[in-house]
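Here is the promised in-class demo. Please do not try to memorize the tokens; focus on the logic of going from shape to residues.
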């Protein structure tokens, strides 16, 4: 019997219509377009506007695109894993809400929280369900409404983040395509430098926490940058080395879109020219769990069956990782 691997067989994405440009941010906080572009590479980011709209409202259309492409009934989905740090509610899981909105009545699911590395962690988890032979169709969606937890009076964070969702369908493959290897790491000591202080069991919501603006994302930028540059570059190089590959073997690097300088450092460490690196940070900013699948969505037509690609991320907590994927199909 041939070994079963978990192949990505379709991708979908969604970004809100509203564009928050650097010029608009200049009117909100003490910053300017040149400063933002020079340090991050970001020119605009998408923001989900509208009463009662949440993370699930971006995840659903991303998954619906996959269902249309594959001509699937939502009832054929076995499992939905939602990578997010901005769930609709503390509970139930956003994955369950997404399933209900889709009509995926035969699926089970859960949320996975690993900040900007969430999609990679969820992808590896979803792949294990396929590899076991237990499930045939697993949806992994990375979705975050970061505007819900960003303080738009804090120039250190509000210029970075945007909203969006990206999803992939995992199915069994016996030709050697799909998720080939992952290097995933975490270090909880990083919690001091990138976090959301209040709202959890450590510091439940109160008048005091709201007044102190502790329900917004906090980032100690310089420290996080130093860890991210080393972390993303190290795991990306490690996954090549342990699979006896070099940069020449890789068709694309799909990096988390946090900062253009971090992306450059990762590509250099892998020996990749920038024309083999997917970059859309200038349009969407950092959409946390959604950045990597949104890249796959935008570059889908440039991916070919047999291409080796490396997905790489670094997130708060700290979490980081790299995944080696052999692309399973040519887009129509």
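The designed amino acids, position by position:
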């Amino acid at each position: 019997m041939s070994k079963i691997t978990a192949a990505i067989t379709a991708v979908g994405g969604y970004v809100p219509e509203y564009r928050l440009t650097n010029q608009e941010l200049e009117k909100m906080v003490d910053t300017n377009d040149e400063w933002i572009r020079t340090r991050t590479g970001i020119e605009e980011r998408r923001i989900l506007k509208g009463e009662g709209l949440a993370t699930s409202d971006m995840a659903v259309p991303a998954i619906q695109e996959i269902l249309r492409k594959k001509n699937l009934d939502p009832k054929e989905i076995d499992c939905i894993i939602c990578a997010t740090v901005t769930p609709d509610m503390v509970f139930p899981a956003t994955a369950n809400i997404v399933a209900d909105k889709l009509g995926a009545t035969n699926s089970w699911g859960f949320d996975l929280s690993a900040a900007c590395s969430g999609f990679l962690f969820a992808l590896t988890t979803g792949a294990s369900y396929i590899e076991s032979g237990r499930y045939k169709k697993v949806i992994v969606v990375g979705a975050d409404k970061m505007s819900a937890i960003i303080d738009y009076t804090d120039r250190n964070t509000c210029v970075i983040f945007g909203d969006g969702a990206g999803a992939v369908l995992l199915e069994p493959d016996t030709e050697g395509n799909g998720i080939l290897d992952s290097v995933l790491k975490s270090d909880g000591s990083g919690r001091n430098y990138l976090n959301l202080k209040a709202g959890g069991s450590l510091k439940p919501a109160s008048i005091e926490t709201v007044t102190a603006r502790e329900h917004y994302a906090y980032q100690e930028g310089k420290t996080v940058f130093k860890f991210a540059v080393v972390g993303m570059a190290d795991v990306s190089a490690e996954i090549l080395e342990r699979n006896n590959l070099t940069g020449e073997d890789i068709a694309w690097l799909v990096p988390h879109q946090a900062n253009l300088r971090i992306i450059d450092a990762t590509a250099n460490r892998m020996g990749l020219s920038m024309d083999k690196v997917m970059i859309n940070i200038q349009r969407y900013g950092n959409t946390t769990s959604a950045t990597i699948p949104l890249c796959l969505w935008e570059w889908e037509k440039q991916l070919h069956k047999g291409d080796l690609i490396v997905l790489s991320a670094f997130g708060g907590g700290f979490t980081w990782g790299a995944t080696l994927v052999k692309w399973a199909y040519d887009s129509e």
